[in-house]
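Protein data sheet
==================
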Amino acid sequence: MRKTSSRIKTSTGDRIFDYCNYTFMILLIIVTLYPFINILAVSLNNAQDSIKGGIYLFPRVWTLDNYRYIFRESTIFHATLISVLRTVIGTVTTVFCSAMVAYTLSRQDYVLRKFITIAFVLTMYFNGGLIPNYLLIRDLHLLGSFWVYIWPGLIGVFNLIIIRSFIENLPESILESGRIDGAGDFRSFFNIVLPLTLPVLATVALFSGVFQWNSWFDVFLYNSSHINLSTLQYELQKILQNSNTTSGTSSLDGMISGASGAQQNTVTPLSIRATMTIVASLPIIMVYPFLQKYFVKGMMVGGVKG
């Protein structure tokens, strides 16, 4: 048996398959990483030199002036703090509330489960519109408040469906054993359901975290006049808009000192967009590896039932 298995592993067909598989995966990695590496190279390159094009994997003229231009704004660091608070609080509350509602709707003995599920799903297809939403937020006294980032998205219907499908796939015998031991609904939810649904909760947390981190339009609608509630994405959007407005024909009017303090470099909208992309995406890229294994498992198991 050992000789047979050894002969199979070293056969010509297996070697060809391995080489083709390795080549394909390497090409896939290159295609996936190249756009990000290219944007990083542009962000680290001299803005005027970037206009010439021809930058692929490495900067042609190294500089940090693009990052200095963005971080010289006094509001950036406070806006980053607001974005972090919004992402953390919004993600935790959304995941927890969505999980509680999903657990309720997954119970077969709940009489209104179908009606409420349909009511939730309808909100994915029909929306009141921008003006009614604004009037609702105003009447709820959420304008100029940090909680306008949290309460409207407390329960995501898409996340709710994913979690409910995952819970429905759990063995019913586990919950029945908890009831035999005297566990009620709350104890079953906290002690049994939550630990078992960790993969799908991590998946939903990633979805919600990315959404909260990237949101800026609600800041523009509800808190644009409150600088203390501005987020990083909104501040970056204002910087980009300002660079597009003041660029004139081809260059930005704002000048910043170079590394030596003697030279000055013109920042262009192209360099600003590349730098914004790196600044905005880096936190998510750093978090994703820790949630990757849960993300894959949660999507596979949570998507079995609709």
Q: What stands out?
A: Strands lie at 255-257, 264-266. Residues 3-8, 248-264, 302-306 have pLDDT under 50 and may be disordered. Residues 63-306 form a domain with the MetI-like fold fold (CATH 1.10.3720.10). The chain has one domain: 63-306.
